[in-house]
Amino acid sequence: MMGPEIPLYLTVASFLFATGALGVLLRRNPLIVLLSLEIMLNGANLAFISFARRLGDGDGQIFAVTVMAVAASEVVVGLGLVVALHRRDLELDVDRLSTLRG
Amino acid sequence: MGDFLVWVVWVLAAFACLGSGIAVVTFSNPFYSALALIANLASLAVLYLLLAAEFVAAAQVLVYAGAVMVMFLFVIAYVGQRADTVWTGGPSWQFVGGVLAGGAILVEVIIAIGLGASGRLRDEADIDAAFGSPAEIGRLFLTDHLLAFEVTSIVLLVAAVGGVVLGGQSRRAPEEEASLGR
Questions:
Q1: pLDDT tens over chain B, length 182 residues
Q2: Residues of B numbered 113-142 whose beta carbons fall under 8 angstroms of chain A's beta carbons: which are they?
Q3: How far apart are CA B83 and CA A21, in angstroms?
Q4: Is B2 exposed, middle or buried (0-12, 13-18, 19+ CB in 10 A)?
Q5: Min CA distance, A50 vs chain B (Å)?
Q6: So what's the ipTM on this one?
Q7: How big is the CA angle at A28 (ends A22 and A30), to the nearest 5 degrees?
Q8: Residues on chain A touching B27 (C-beta within 8 angstroms)
Q9: Residue-wise DSSP of A31-95
């Protein structure tokens, strides 16, 4: 294979995943939390595709496409929640959303 | 020469990918974060192409960077640009805990990959030209992974219904709204 080897791709994937995890843990705007979640999913996708290339097996790519569909569903539900929050004039801050607290 | 070009493309794409990822997390304005995520997804598509995943790269640009991000930008424009409140007054326990947890995840992933596959990751399998092409992905989806394919359609349907239920709700009556404890 020309160019960089698989471990380098996996390094990028794990850094992406950690970046997204930091965003999910630290940011308080639910929109940015959702965007960071996308970064985590894409880090996982990059790992899937790297391993598919390593093994010469298409299953990893199938999984990546499925992850994309799940990510799209998750965005729909997440953005629906953000819009519902906005309509009720609730503050967009995940630390202060306690209406559903049991 | 070809090897050198691949390396140049890889370095550019990988650093664009990591840099825009950090930008998404650090920008205070969600609109800029979403634009940085589009750059992130595009540079990831370049990495997918280098890994012989043509179909996934095309789907990434069309579905992700196209459709999903446009939806994001619409909602951000609808909600309005309320910037996050800026962090004030030193690192709180939340900030320290978040950084520790993120670092721990990174270390765990690297150790797991390093221990589980030390050295064996380097020798890639030989692949033919059909690997990762739309025809190959379609064949796999309709033979080995038919159940995943069908379940995905149900997941998308449920998400669409959920989006309509959450977003399409008519405004509540004023007295009911007032009774909701803020």
A1: 678 888 999 999 999 999 999 999 998 888 899 999 999 999 999 999 999 889 999 999 998 888 889 989 999 888 876 655 555 555 677 778 888 888 888 888 888 777 766 667 767 777 777 788 889 899 999 998 999 999 999 999 999 999 888 877 655 555 555 555 54
A2: 113, 121-122, 124-127, 131-132, 136-137, 140-141
A3: 20
A4: exposed
A5: 7
A6: 0.89
A7: 100
A8: 32
A9: HHHHHHHHHHHHHHHHHHHHHHHHHT-THHHHHHHHHHHHHHHHHHHHHHHHHHHHHTT--S-TT
HSE-CB of A10 using CA atoms within 13 angstroms: 22
By CA distance, what is B112's nearest residue in A? Answer: A14
Separation CA B83–CA B100 (nearest Å): 25
Q: What is the pTM of this model?
A: 0.86
The angle, 0 to 180 degrees and rounded to 10, between the axes of the packed helices A30-55 and B2-26 is: 160
